Each structure stands twice: as structure tokens, then as C-alpha cells.
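RECORD TYPE: inverse folding
INPUT: C-alpha cells
STRUCTURE:
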């Protein structure tokens, strides 16, 4: 017989309670008999039954039989999550395959059911950036898993946002357990508190790592050491005790020196340097083994590292004197900058008289102008040709502007122009001439009677007019101007007139 301790309902009344435990068949469980006093109310009996976790099954006078309530164990379904940062090697973390191997051994030892194995190579520094982790959270909300098996808590989260989503799943009873190599975290306040501490410690390590790296780079710069990959013309030293030191590249360094000399002394442009490096020198970068782009050449020409000083980080205003051997002098660098400044002067866009007015007769593209300068001729010549927007292999050919005007004058008879516009411009020209004669020659006379000839006036504008007047006149032409094999023609609705 066993008489367990049970508190009295009231101090003023001594009620004798005796518990008799008798053995039953194991399948029926334990059965208890409660000897009660007739003065014990139904409420007290209900409270006593609920405290004991029993269910009333029979009532035999003063003897009440109670049986334990059946409880169904929760079936645990785990997802094995293995992660490794793709940004840097983390000393305390094993590789993904090693993590999976170790956690599978634990699952086999403890008889855990692994539903899925999820692998991810992504940094956990920022919240909501890991696609595999987001899928796991969604599967837990959908009831696919209720447990996570992971090597260490910092594999799950290194930020407050992802950690909060895990704790919320625990509060919602969707995530029952997180099991690591040496710990178990359940939905108890102490376990959740410990989980948050461990993940917050991982975030603190990330933040401190950033501060320490920046401090180390700043210290290296103060020592005159270059904290990044060496620019073209230099090589990083590979010795461990010479970390941060750079040396002149014996193959590319002299070429970089010549590049500055050609720009500063021979007044070369950046594009000319580009063609020289690519086609004559067959110059290639040490890192990519590819030719330098035009933008890279301009960036190198503006890098003060070559004469011994550098700024780090870029545009920070922090300048340091390097310990490396300079390739050029500061005077040569400044002369190169002056030449680059002159070559970067922007010119106003020049308007040509007949550009974007004609159409290519072969491919239908527009006709544009291109001005070619010739030193012997002492000036430039304007050529018109197809812009090849619809056919890169168009063979339309190029026509000089003087020859183009001659062909347009020969086509005047077939050109249909707005007569009202021509008459208006003719009258304005007469009035302007009369005002000019009065102001400068003192000639005051009535408006002369000049015979109006639209064809002759059109020829005058094409040969002697300004660029604006020519473009205004051609915009009023009702025909379509076509350039084909250096021949200008006028296309109308029913026929085509040509000078050829």
C-alpha cells in the first residue's frame, strides 16, 4: 500500500483520504480508488480529479475509480539544413558535406526522421536574402516539418530578422524543436532565450569583423602599403611576410610608362593609346588576359598611384604616401592630366544642312553627315551617306556636300515646294535688303519691282543660304529625297526623277 501526500481542502476540517494503488494488467494502466467523505462537494471532487489528471470511470459508494488520460506523442519530422557562406571562409564552420555527414550520424543515433536535406551557399548577414531558408520557413508553416536539425545556431541566422521568424514559429507551436550538434532548443522561455543569445552573438561577430577589417586596411594604408589588387603595371608580392607590398611588373610596367609619355609629351588621345596598346603592342591585362578597354585606359591615366601616392577608399579624401617604387614622376603625371583635360573639352553639336532629310535608296535607313578633317586641305569636308541602321552591310556610298548641292539644283524642275512658303520667304528677303540699304547706304527708295521666280529663289537658297535656311527649305519639299549609289533622286507618288 502507498499513501501519497495530498493537501487538505480546509484547515478546519480534517478529512481522511487514503489512496490505494493496486496493480492491474499493463494494458489497462494504473487504477486508483479514492475514499471520500460525504461532506465533500462535487466541485471539490472535480478539482481533485483535474489535478490528478484522472478520468472518472466508476462509482462504487464511497469508492471512486480514476484512470489516467491517454496522451498521443507528437511525431517529429526534421529538415536537415546545412549552410556555408559564399563570401568568405568561416573558421568555426565545417563544409556543407561535413555538416550533413555529422548531423546524419546524430539522426541515426537518436532515431530522428529526416524528411529533407537542404543545402545553401549564402551569407546569413542580411535578413530575407536566403532562398532556401525562406523555403524552409514556408514548409514549416505548411506543416511539412516541425523540427530543424542544424550544425550550429549561427548556420540558421546571423541577423535579427531571420531569428525573429524562427522564434515566431516556436510561439505558434509550428516549430517544436531545433536540434544542433550539442544542444536542443524547444518552446520553453529559457531555450528560446539561449537561442537568441547564440544567434545574436553571431551577428555581433559579423559586425565586429567589419570594424576590424576596416581598421586593418586603414593601418596598412598608414604604413604605405596598398590594400587592394595591384593596378596594371604592378604585381602583388606573394610572400606572406610581404603582404600588401607591390612590385613593378617587368613586362607591363615599361608599357605603362610609355603610355604616360605618349599622352603627356606626344599629345596622344586616349583612343589613340587604345589602338596602340591593342593592335601594335598586343597588350593584355595580368588578371583577365584581355585587352584594356578605353574606360580602363582613362582610369589608369588618372591614377596617382603610378607616381607614389594613393587615395583609399576612393573619393574619401584620405591620401597616403606609398612604399612602392614609382613608375613615373609627378610632373609627367600632371602633364598627362592637362592633355586629358584638353581632349575632354566638349564641342557643340554641329548641324548639317541635309542630314536626316534624305533616305537611303538601298536599305531604307536614314542619311547622315560626317565631317572629315584634312590637314593638307586646311579644313574639313562634309560627306553624306547611309547610317546603316537597317543594314550594316549597305553599299550606298558617300557623297560630298558640294556634289549633293549640284545634283539638287539640277532637280529643281521636279521638286514640289510649298509656293506660299517660298513667296513669303522671298518677300522677307526683299524687306531685309531694303532695311540694310537704308541703314548702311542711306538709300531710301520704294520697294523694287523684282520678278518673282520660285525656282531661281530655291536655287539661291541651296547654293548661298545658311544651314538653317537650307533645312527650312527642304522641310517644305513635298517629294522624298533618296540617295542611292551616290546619286540623288526625287521620288513622287507616280514617278522617280534622277540626275543619273
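DESIGNED SEQUENCE:
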Amino acid at each position: 500500500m502507498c499513501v501519497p501526500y495530498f493537501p487538505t481542502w480546509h484547515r478546519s476540517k480534517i478529512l481522511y483520504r487514503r489512496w490505494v494503488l493496486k496493480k492491474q494488467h499493463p494494458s489497462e494502466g494504473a487504477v486508483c480508488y479514492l475514499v471520500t467523505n460525504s461532506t465533500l462537494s462535487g466541485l471539490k471532487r472535480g478539482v481533485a480529479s483535474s489535478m490528478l489528471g484522472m478520468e472518472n470511470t466508476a462509482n462504487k459508494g464511497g469508492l471512486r475509480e480514476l484512470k489516467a488520460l491517454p496522451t498521443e506523442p507528437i511525431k517529429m519530422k526534421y529538415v536537415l539544413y546545412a549552410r556555408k557562406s559564399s563570401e568568405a571562409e568561416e573558421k568555426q564552420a565545417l563544409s556543407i558535406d561535413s555538416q550533413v555527414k555529422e548531423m546524419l550520424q546524430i539522426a541515426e543515433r537518436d532515431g530522428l526522421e529526416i524528411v529533407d536535406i537542404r543545402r545553401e551557399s549564402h551569407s546569413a548577414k542580411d535578413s530575407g536574402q536566403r532562398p532556401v531558408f525562406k523555403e524552409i520557413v514556408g514548409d514549416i508553416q505548411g506543416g511539412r516539418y516541425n523540427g530543424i536539425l542544424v550544425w550550429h545556431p549561427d548556420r540558421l541566422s546571423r541577423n535579427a530578422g531571420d531569428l525573429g521568424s524562427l522564434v515566431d514559429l516556436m510561439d505558434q507551436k509550428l516549430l517544436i524543436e531545433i536540434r544542433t550538434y550539442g544542444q536542443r532548443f524547444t518552446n520553453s522561455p529559457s531555450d528560446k532565450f539561449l537561442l537568441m543569445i547564440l544567434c545574436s552573438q553571431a551577428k555581433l561577430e559579423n559586425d565586429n569583423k567589419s570594424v576590424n577589417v576596416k581598421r586593418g586596411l586603414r593601418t596598412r594604408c598608414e604604413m604605405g602599403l596598398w590594400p587592394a589588387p595591384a593596378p596594371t603595371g604592378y604585381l602583388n608580392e606573394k610572400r606572406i611576410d610581404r603582404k600588401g607590398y607591390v612590385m613593378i611588373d617587368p613586362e607591363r610596367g615599361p608599357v605603362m610608362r610609355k603610355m604616360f609619355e605618349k599622352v603627356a609629351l606626344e599629345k596622344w588621345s586616349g583612343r589613340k593609346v587604345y589602338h596602340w596598346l591593342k593592335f601594335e603592342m598586343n597588350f593584355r591585362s595580368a588578371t583577365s588576359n584581355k585587352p584594356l578597354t578605353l574606360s580602363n585606359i582613362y582610369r589608369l591615366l588618372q591614377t596617382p598611384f603610378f607616381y607614389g601616392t594613393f587615395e583609399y577608399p576612393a573619393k574619401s579624401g584620405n591620401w597616403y604616401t606609398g612604399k612602392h617604387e614609382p613608375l613615373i614622376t609627378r610632373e609627367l603625371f600632371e602633364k598627362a592630366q592637362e592633355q586629358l583635360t584638353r581632349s575632354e573639352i566638349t564641342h557643340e553639336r554641329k548641324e548639317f544642312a541635309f542630314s536626316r532629310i534624305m533616305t537611303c535608296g538601298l536599305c531604307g535607313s536614314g542619311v547622315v553627315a560626317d565631317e572629315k578633317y584634312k590637314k593638307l586641305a586646311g579644313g574639313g569636308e562634309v560627306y553624306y551617306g547611309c547610317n546603316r541602321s537597317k543594314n550594316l552591310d549597305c553599299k550606298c556610298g558617300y557623297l560630298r556636300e558640294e556634289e549633293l548641292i549640284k545634283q539638287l539644283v539640277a532637280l529643281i524642275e521636279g521638286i514640289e515646294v510649298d509656293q506660299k512658303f517660298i513667296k513669303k520667304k522671298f518677300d522677307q528677303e526683299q524687306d531685309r535688303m531694303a532695311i540694310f540699304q537704308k541703314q548702311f547706304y542711306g538709300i531710301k527708295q520704294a520697294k523694287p519691282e523684282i520678278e518673282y521666280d520660285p525656282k531661281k529663289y530655291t536655287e539661291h537658297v541651296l547654293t548661298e543660304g545658311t544651314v538653317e535656311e537650307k533645312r527650312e527649305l527642304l522641310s517644305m519639299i513635298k517629294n522624298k529625297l533618296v540617295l542611292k549609289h551616290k546619286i540623288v533622286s526625287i521620288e513622287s507618288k507616280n514617278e522617280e526623277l534622277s540626275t543619273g
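NOTES: Residues 1-63, 495-500 have pLDDT under 50 and may be disordered.
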